[in-house]
Amino acid sequence: MGLLTFTIKPNIPDRLKPLEEIARNLWISWNYNAITLFMRLDYEAWLASRQNPVRMLGLVSQEKLEQTARDDSFLAAMDAVYAAFKRYLSAERWYKGPSERVIAYFSMEYGLDVALPVYSGGLGVLSGDHLKTSSDLGLPLVGVGLLYRQGYFQQYLNMDGFQQESYPENDWYNMPVNPCLDAKDKPVSVQVDLAGVPVTARVWEVKVGKNSLYLLDTNIEENPPEKRLITAQLYGGDRETRIQQEILLGIGGILALSALGISVAVAHMNEGHSAFLGIERIRACMREKKLSWAEALHAVWSTNVFTTHTPVPAGNERFSPGLMEKYFHGLAAELGVPWKEFLGLGREDPQNDGEEFCLTVLALRLSAFANGVSRLHGEVSREMWRRIWPSLPLAEVPITHITNGVHPRSWITHDMVDLLDRYLGPAFNDQPTNLAIWDRIDRVSDEELWRTHERRRERMVAFARMRLQQQLERRGVINSELNRGANALSPYALTISFARRFATYKRADLLLSDPERLIRLLTDNDRPIQMIFAGKAHPHDLAGKEIIKKLVHFSGDPRVASRIVFLEDYDMTISRYLVSGSDLWLNTPRRPLEASGTSGMKAAINGVLNVSILDGWWAEAYSAGIGWAIGRGEEYDDHVLQDEVEGKALYDLLEREIIPLFYSRGMDGLPREWIRRMKSSMREVGKNYSSTRMLLEYNERFYARAMENERSMREKNCALCRDMAAYFEKLRKAWPALRIDGLSSPSVPILKIGEKIPAVAKVFLAGLSANEVAVELFYGPLSSRGEIGEPRRMDMSPSGKEGETTMYSAEVPCDRTGRQGYTVRILPKHRALVHPFLPGLVKWG
User: Fold this and answer.
1) Is the bond into 53 cis (omega within 30 degrees of 0)?
2) Tally of CB atoms within 10 A around 639
3) In degrees rounded to 5, what are phi and psi of residue 232?
């Protein structure tokens, strides 16, 4: 006889039923009044549940629940919160477009709240903020991910300060997730083929305000034991496990949405982990619309969005040809695609049989819309992946940038939100798209802003002391050492925080480059500073673990023992305390390896000032009035020299500018100039680096266009898809013979501003008509090496025939002085093309 199972739920009195509904929607995570309801119900249970309202309701005694159901004061507060919740769900939103077909957002991790630990760091938190903001705006967007049995590891340090990992099991029946059920109340599941083995995944739902996140789980009885482990750990296992996870996410995720009856108009791949979804979308088009591979590929290409996040080559997922063959050879045959061509989709050079299959390359080849996550990262990404478009100038590689942002209501502390609500007015809450509201920040009085910030620093120090004592107790230290934890840090000293993933390129130990100089700063009784470090190293990153150990050993020096601390197991709870209670946020990556970084944005909108290398978002956000830059954006080949130079620059900033500014107080005890910078930082970052700005930009530049493409492709039995495929088949046949026979101009070699140069090109079209290709004049100033810099494009128009060639003409405007140059090129031209920059289809004169 098999194991019989049953589920027990809390016996919530009818009068308290709204608590269950609120607890199971992560709207609670950005509404502090809702959180206070649960704290007020039973604070000890709230702490014991690790701030998980669903689990907490099961920990509260029945007597306490019955008693609270008769508490008029609590019921009034609950009714007010519930009414606000219902208003949020029913209110009209910014988005007014069609919503019957959705934007499907795929990510390997989601950092929505501590109650749902299926995230590791910045990528996941960004995904969570993306979902929250789409709910605020009313975008028809659903999230898709995996439900990890153990999630990411919990971190603790041994007696020597070396990172250890533990993997506690997640109890989904006591977390804000619900199994998806069909019309017969049976669990919704999908089946994915993994190298000939059918694997079943159950689908769960997480409510995020108005929107939903769907998570796939293979830990079910139908699967063999090894397949149940696919969703065991985030970023865990070997290469085989990783490819299985990514097949499940991409292919299984599309199948899951179909099983739920959700029609996908646009798919957004947040990092390359989900890139296999493009293959599944093509297969679905072929099956449902009776399209060929080429026809379906063009349809999917024009409705896919891809965001790349890592400028580190090793961070882009790659698989050997052998592993790809094991999992995809049968699928390629089913789709009618030659195996070499299929592998070419994931190779920078499709002809290189030895090149591994890269998911980032696959995502780029299958997406008309692609972006990096900051201006600098866009430049780095174009350089990284230019080999996919070998004939294009770097500036035209079709990867743009949309800089990340953060969800203000999730990251600004409740007391600061109360202050801003009072001074900025109702629009701060009711009109999330009114970003100009941040210009009112100067209305906030210096006194109130500083008092609010000081209270938050005091709260952060109290929290840090509590966590330090817990860490020391867990290590079994003696009472005298425990007292050190209880008295660590000061609620009044300038507090610098460094909290992020402990990868070596982030250089958490840059300040340790001159330990004696640091000790002098930490032990200065007149102008004291203190430092808080937090962050995890990847379990296999021994170098990152050594940096943590180095910091912990340094913090044990009796001279600085109470002034520098390391908080274990960095998560969203610790992050919220640090980004609000710190005075200075430190970021020291090795440029240009920080794609964006969002922790500094969270700090800035809380009034915490940034001091950072000009990398990621800070390279475009920095100005002298909102923080400090370490260096001027230099890049070094010699990393030892770089660390030395930038370490000294950081010390100089601290000693000469930052510390004196913080401790420069007026008669009223206020650091007026520091407060002025706090306001400037909040204004500029609030306006320009919120996730609202980010989503508005994604919608305008990508989503709206991709949704229109999907409607066009679907019309008249997908006539446009078929036309586009027929066009490209004709174009590729003609392409080898297509040529430019000459470019000439009767102009004199020296001209003046305002004149124009007539240019004529002779083009052999190889059987194509003049409206089937774009003939462009490509012009601009010449560099010392004879290359066109800052190029501009101009369409040339057919102006006659000369034998078998077609004449094209244009006039180059003379609007810049200096040595100029121009040439001509041929590109594809079709009304359904999002852009003409397709690999292998550029021909130069």
Assistant:
1) no
2) 12
3) -75, -50
Give mean pLDDT, residues 153-160. Answer: 92
Residue (of 460, 669, 686, 681) closest to 582 by Cα position:
460
Distance CA 643, CA 636 (A): 9
The angle subtended at Cα 415 by Cα 413 and Cα 417, nearest 5°, is 70
Nearest to 274 by CA among 400, 372, 382, 146: 146
Predicted model pTM:
0.95
- Roughly what angle, to the nearest 10 degrees, separates helices 479-486 and 446-475? 160
Q: Model confidence over 21-38: pLDDT tens digits?
A: 999 999 999 999 999 999
Contacts of 97 (CB under 8 A, 6+ apart): 140, 704, 707
Residue in the block written with tokens 């860490």: 471
Q: What is the mean pLDDT of residues 387-392?
A: 95
Query: Residue with structure tokens 């938190």?
Result: 125
Helix (H, G, I), strand (E, B) or coil at 12: coil
The residue assigned the tokens 């093509």 is 282
Residue count of the chain:
845
**Identity (one letter) of the amino acid at 50?**
R
CA atoms within 13 A on the CB side of 176: 29
One-letter amino acid of 648 = K
Supply 201's token pair. 């995944």
Q: How many degrees, rounded to 5, is the angle at CA 681 between CA 679 and CA 687?
A: 100
Beta bridge partners of residue 213, listed in sequence order: 143, 206
Q: The tokens of 710 are what?
A: 């999907």
Give the contacts of 694 (CB within 8 A, at least 6 positions apart). Answer: 130, 133, 402, 403, 404, 405
pLDDT over 50 at 370, yes or no? yes
77-92 pLDDT, tens per residue? 999 999 999 999 999 9
Of 212, 231, 200, 22, nearest to 118 (Cα)?
231
pLDDT at 1: 47
The end-to-end CA distance of the chain, in Å, is 77
Give the mean model confidence (pLDDT) for residues 629-645: 94
Least confident of 538-542, 566-570, 694-698: 538-542
Residue 318 three-state SS: strand
- Whole-angstrom distance, CA of residue 229 vs CA of residue 241: 8
What domains can you pick out in the chain, each with its CATH number? 14-90 (no CATH), 102-404+702-711 (3.40.50.2000), 453-688 (3.40.50.2000), 732-844 (2.60.40)
Q: How far is CA 808 from CA 430, 495, 823, in A?
A: 55, 66, 13
Are the beta carbons of 746 and 758 closer than 8 angstroms? yes
Q: Is the pLDDT of residue 394 over 90?
A: yes
Enter the DSSP assignment of 110.
Answer: B
CA atoms within 13 A on the CB side of 94: 17
Residue 410 vs residue 820, higher pLDDT: 410
Cα atoms in the Cβ-side hemisphere of radius 13 Å centred on 495: 30
The mean-pLDDT minimum among 73-87, 541-555, 657-671, 747-761 falls in 747-761
**Whether the Cβ atoms of residue 454 and residue 487 lie closer than 8 Å to each other:** no
Q: What is the DSSP annotation of 576-632? A: HHHHHH-SEEEE---TT-----SHHHHHHHTTPEEEEES-TTHHHH--TTTEEEESS
One DSSP character per residue, 397-445 reads SS-EE----B-HHHHS-HHHHHHHHHHH-THHHH-TT-GGGGGGGGGS-
Query: How much is the mean pLDDT over the chain?
Result: 94
Q: In angstroms, rounded to a whole number, what is the distance separating the alpha carbons of residues 171 and 422?
A: 40
Cβ contact 625:683 at 8 Å: no
Please give the Cα distance from 329 to 343 (Å, whole number): 10
Mutual orientation of helices 122-137 and 691-698 as an angle, nearest 10°?
70
- Cβ(732)–Cβ(302) under 8 Å? no
Cα 583 to Cα 756: distance, rounded to the nearest angstrom: 57
pLDDT tens by residue, 322-366: 999 999 999 999 999 999 999 999 999 999 999 999 999 999 999
Percent of the chain clearing pLDDT 90 (strictly above): 86
